[in-house]
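For the sake of clarity, the format in which proteins appear in this thesis is described at this point. Each number in the token line that follows is a code from a learned vocabulary of backbone shapes. One such record is shown here in full, so that the layout can be seen directly:
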Amino acid sequence: MIAMIILLVVIALIVFWVIGVYNRLVSLRNRFRNGFSQIDVQLKRRYDLIPNLVEVAKGYMKHERETLEAVISARNQAVTANSNAGSAQADAASVQQLAAAEGTLNASLGRLFALSEAYPDLKANQNMIQLTEELTATENKIAFARQAYNDSVMQYNIGIEQFPGSMIANTFGFKAGELLQATESAEERKAVKVSF
């Protein structure tokens, strides 16, 4: 009788332990999904600002049609990649596609801002100044949200890779989350040299 009680207590402790580990992994997974949602909010704001920025620039940069079209095309690709990644956040390929699309968008926006330097009237335009400031603030929020996302993915991945969480993760099909990484080449990451 005592052996049966001890066996039931041990089984109950194991069950509670499994439940605790499982709930911790679910909590960590939901945190990194929430982190992605925060990035998504800021990216949507950015995607909404870009067409307005391009419209303001169109009036001044009539001869730079190719650059303006490249920005809009990159924005549309990023919107699609963001939508795909949003539905499959643990899918490494969709997160990598989002990072690549964002890299292309950043490069085309960089070209737009570089070209805008050649148009003093555009640089002085109040709408352009306001949109640029809003875009810069949004970029900062995106960077913070990406950092928070990567931190939560790292905690989640540690949770599913460390023992004993790895046993529960394998049993219940928890998959590793994908970190958002910069996609720029080493050449693109170099600091811009400014000389006067």
Remarks:
- Residues 107 and 188 are 9 Å apart (CA to CA).
